């Protein structure tokens, strides 16, 4: 993945440069286009991943998994409707751990299991709140729309500063205790600097799209293909697209319905992120299960 990381850095700054030629409307269209295609696609094979992870040969297992998956998504949507503040907090917590885990920050050090689990979570919080920090006013507007009341303050700066201190403390501790980690320190701090530059110099939507597509969705698709097919090839990618098409289409139709029902931009942004959160909940569980099975297979 090291070669891909080099590509991701170049692609990110290329997108920042390219965006200088876009109008605001063009930027919104392109950003949503990438999120609706690659972004949604990276979770479109979750049901196949569940089947592969469970090694289930029952003919009705796919139908059962589909029902369970839909139930989790619907529960997420209902939670955003009835208890939006709880749903939003869960979304931030789950997304933070998912983003941090995607960066490969799971270690097998002989230390506290709490620290090992906390470290990728703090990394994910840093990513999210760096984005929030540079676009606090817009984030406040979206959060207020989701919660359906005006939020006086989100304490973004305070949460970001606290997270930085905790993250650096654990980083220093790992660096002192484990020699193998020392080579990662500068690398991970450099990535955070890259993310900060991206978020600072872009709009909220464009910055999110760059991270979500280049740094999260594409690497996730690569990992999923390696897990399901053993390698990444053009033929395997075609199979990946074919298997995930119906889930992707259903997600797009759901988002399109939201747009036509609520074409006010502020309301749509709130509903869009709520919908994205709802489909994120089961996806994170599936990816964690995949990583667990991948690790167990490597051991055996």
What would you note in describing this structure?
With 300 residues, this protein is mostly helical. Helices cover 85% and strands 0% of the residues. The protein has helices spanning 2-19, 24-41, 46-54, 61-82, 84-102, 113-134, 136-147, 156-177, 179-201, 204-229, 234-261, 265-299. It is globular. Helix 9 crosses helix 10 (204-229). The two termini are 23 Å apart.
Please count the beta strands (DSSP E, at least 2 residues each). 0
Helix content: over 70%
General shape: globular
Q: Major sheet, described briefly?
A: none
Low-confidence stretches: none
The N- to C-terminal Cα distance equals 23 Å
Give the class from helix and strand content and strand pairing: mainly alpha
Specify the number of helices.
12
Average residue-wise pLDDT: 85
What is the string of helix and strand elements? HHHHHHHHHHHH
Strand content: under 5%
As a whole number of angstroms, the C-alpha radius of gyration is 19 Å
Task: Name the descriptors.
85% helix, 0% strand, globular, 300 residues, mainly alpha
């Amino acid at each position: 993945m090291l070669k891909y990381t080099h590509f991701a850095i170049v692609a990110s700054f290329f997108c920042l440069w390219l965006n200088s030629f876009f109008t605001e409307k063009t930027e919104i269209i392109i950003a949503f286009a990438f999120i609706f295609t690659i972004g949604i696609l990276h979770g479109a094979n979750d049901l196949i991943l569940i089947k592969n992870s469970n090694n289930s040969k029952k003919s009705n297992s796919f139908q059962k998994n589909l029902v369970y998956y839909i139930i989790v998504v619907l529960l997420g949507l209902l939670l955003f409707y009835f208890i939006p503040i709880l749903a939003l907090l869960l979304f931030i917590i789950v997304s933070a751990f998912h983003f941090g885990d995607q960066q490969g920050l799971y270690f097998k050090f002989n230390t506290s299991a709490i620290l090992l689990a906390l470290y990728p979570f703090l990394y994910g919080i840093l990513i999210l709140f760096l984005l929030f920090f540079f676009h606090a006013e817009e984030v406040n507007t979206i959060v207020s729309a989701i919660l359906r009341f005006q939020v006086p303050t989100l304490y973004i700066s305070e949460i970001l500063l606290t997270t930085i201190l905790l993250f650096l403390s654990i980083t220093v501790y790992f660096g002192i205790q484990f020699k193998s980690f020392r080579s990662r320190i500068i690398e991970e701090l450099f990535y955070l600097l890259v993310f900060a530059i991206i978020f600072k110099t872009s709009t909220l939507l464009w910055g999110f799209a760059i991270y979500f597509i280049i740094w999260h969705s594409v690497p996730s698709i690569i990992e999923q293909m390696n897990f399901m097919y053993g390698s990444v090839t053009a033929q395997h990618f075609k199979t990946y697209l074919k298997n995930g098409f119906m889930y992707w289409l259903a997600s797009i139709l759901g988002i399109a319905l939201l747009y036509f029902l609520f074409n006010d931009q502020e309301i749509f942004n709130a509903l869009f992120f709520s919908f994205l959160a709802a489909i994120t909940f089961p996806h994170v569980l599936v990816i964690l299960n995949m990583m667990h099975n991948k690790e167990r297979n490597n051991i055996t």
